[in-house]
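Handoff note, outgoing to incoming analyst
You'll be picking up this chain. Sequence as last confirmed:
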Amino acid sequence: MTLKEKFMNRLLGKGSDEIMCGCTTTYGMVDLMKKCGHERPRADTDPVAMTELALAGHRYAGFEWIKAMGWDITGISEVLGCTLGEPKIDSQYFVKAHPFAESLEGLDYPSDFLKRGRFPLYKQQFQMLREKIGDELAIFGETEGPFTAAANLVGSELFMRWTIKKPDDVFKVLDVTKQAAIEAINFAFDNGADYYVLAEPTSGPALMSPKAWGKYMLPLMKEVVSKSKGPLVLHICGNTDGIIALMCDTGVAGISIEEKADMKKAVEIAQPKGVKVFGNVATATTLFMGKPEECYQEAMTALNNGTDFLTPGCGIAPHSPLENLLQIKRARDDFYCK
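Most recent structure output, in case you need it:
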C-alpha cells in the first residue's frame, strides 16, 4: 500500500489504523530551502522552485504527504484585490492593504478568477508534482478560507465590528469570497489534489465567539463543503475547544488544531462524528525554539492523546531547525515500537 493510499484511507475512515506524520499547513522552512537548493522568494513565484520545496518536506523532514499552492494563505485575497507585501527567504506574502475598507463599491467575483494571481503557477506545480511522485504521496492544496479572505478585503478589525453592527455587509462580502473559495478548492481537485485545507485564522476564538461562529462560519462552511469535489480539512488557530463540535458539524473530513486546544477532548468530540484530527505540536514555541527532545515529547503527547495525523499545530516558522521537525517522525515511529 502506498503512502497516499494509507493517508486517504485514514482520512476517509476506510480502515487504516496507523497514524501518519507530516504537515497540513505551510512549511516554508529555511533549512528545507537550503537542503533542496530552492529559496524564497523564488519558491513563491517559480513553479520549479515551488515544487522542489514541496518535495523537500518529504525528502528531508520525513513528511508522509506534501503541500501544493505555495507557502502563504493569501492566494484568494490577492486575486480579489488585496495588495501584498513582498516575501523574503524567511517571511511569506502578507496582506498589506485592504481594498474595500472604505466602501464595498466594485466588489465582485471576477469571471477569470483562475487566470489571475498565482493560480496559473499552482497549475504548473500540480502537474510537476504528479510527474515526480505519481500516486505515491497524497497532495493537498491550501488557501485562506472565505471568512479570512473577507476580513482581508475589509480589514480584520473593521470586519469583526461588522459582524455585530453590519451583518448584511458581512454576508455581501462572504458571497464573493465563498464563490472564490469554492473555485479555488475545485481547481485544486481538478489538477490533482487529494484533499484541501482551508485556513481560517480570522474566525478563531480570539476574534469570534462560538455564537458568532455558529451564525457566520457554520452555514458558510457547510455550503463550501457541499460544493467541493473532494475532502476538506479546516484549520483554525488558537484555543478552539469551544468550537470543536461546530467545526466538525460543517461536514469537513478533518480539523487541524493548535497546541492551545485540548487534543484529547477534540478527538472525543470529532471521532463519533467521523472527523479526523490533525495536530498539535507547538510551532511558535517548541518546534521553533525548543530542544529536539522537547519536540519529541510533545509529539508523543499528541500521539497518546489520540491525534489521527501527527502534525505541527500551525504553519512552521521559517527558522525552525530541521532537527526539531525530524522528532515528529521519530516519535511516531517509536510510538509503534513500544
